[in-house]
Every structure is written in structure tokens, then in C-alpha cells.
Amino acid sequence: MNAATEGDWRSGRVRVRGRNDGRRLGAAELGQGLGRRATLVQFSSAFCAPCRATRRVLTEVAGMVPGVAHVEIDAERRLELVRALGIVKTPTVLVLDAHGRIVRRATGQPRKADVIAALGEAV
Fold first, then answer.
1. Taking Cα atoms as reference points, which of 103, 104, 73 lies closest to residue 90?
2. What is the rounded CA–CA span in Å between residue 88 and residue 99?
């Protein structure tokens, strides 16, 4: 696999990233409160077709799992947060535990099964 196709192959994969250094996000950063058990944070942009599909997946998963919230953030309007978190592509999804710690991260459109599996680590 060459470097040009590797990015496409990895797109949507939910994975652990060690660079967040235990970073926590709360209502001040998200613009709303955390879910009781976990929060799915989606960074989107206006003309991003995969963002719309990701919104549907995350809304559905949040509706299926009690105590899970879905928060969508417009990346263009929150550039300071985008830069602080190293967001380079939309959609990017962060899975937060009940305390706002980032436990998983996905770039690209995640599969529903991967989101549900990632929640298992957060709750």
C-alpha cells in the first residue's frame, strides 16, 4: 500500500492516540454539557458530505446507548479548539468518557460498529 492510499484505508478507523496527554473537554469547550456516561464529539465543516453521514451514525448510536450525548462542532468557527486538539480533517470524532477524557479518536466517516466498540472503552 502506498502513502497515497494509506490515508484512505485508515479513514474512519477509531483508534487510540497517545498525544492527548489525558486532555479533558467540558461544557466550556463543547458548548454544552457532557453525556452522563460518554460523549461523541464530531468536528464538521459546512460542505463536508461525510460529515452529514457521520452525524446520522452518531445520532443513532447516541439514541441507542443511554447516557451518551452527541455534540457537533463547526470546525471553521472553533479554530482555536481545532488547533489545540490537532484536528486536520473533517469529520473527526472524539469519544469522551464521563469525565471528558478523550479515549478514542477517528478521522473520516466511522462505521457504526466501530463507534459502538469505542464507547465500550469510554463507559
1. 73
2. 25
| Residue (of 79, 70, 1, 67) closest to 32 by Cα position | 70
CA distance 92 to 28: 19
How far apart CA 5 and CA 7 sit, in angstroms, is: 5
Other Cβ atoms within 10 Å of 34 Cβ, number: 22
Check residue 122 and give its pLDDT: 84
99: its cell numbers:
469525565
The backbone region for 100, taken as left when phi is positive above 0, alpha when psi lies in -120 to 50, beta otherwise, is: left
Question: Which pLDDT does position 21 carry in this prediction?
Answer: 57
Please list the ranges in the chain whose pLDDT falls under 50: 1-9, 16-19
CB 106 within 8 A of CB 14: yes
- Distances, alpha carbon 65 to alpha carbons 22, 59, 70, 104, in Å: 24, 10, 11, 17
β-strand 68-74 against 14-15: which pairing, if any?
Answer: unpaired
